[in-house]
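To: structure desk
From: M.T.
Subject: fold request, one chain
Message: Could you run this one when you get a chance? Sequence is below, nothing fancy, just the single chain.
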Amino acid sequence: MSISGLEVTLSDIAVYGQGNMSRGSLGREGTALMLKEIRRNLLPSLRKQGYGGGTLRIAGVRVSGPVGHGPDLKFKIPEE
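Reply: Done. Structure tokens follow.
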């Protein structure tokens, strides 16, 4: 994690589904659950810590599917 002004960046993270899931079927058990948790918990927490109005950025490299693809997701942190 790194912070520059009001931009909080998460990198070097991994998301895995639970149980015996086939490739490409993460659904609620993987990526969708991660995004839900970001919106419900992480963004409000960052707002409370003084980063409201800033940006949460998640950057990384895929290790499944299109391997090497670099996702770069940005979320606006709500203001109080």
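Reply (cont.): The radius of gyration is 14 Å. Let me know if you need anything else for the meeting.
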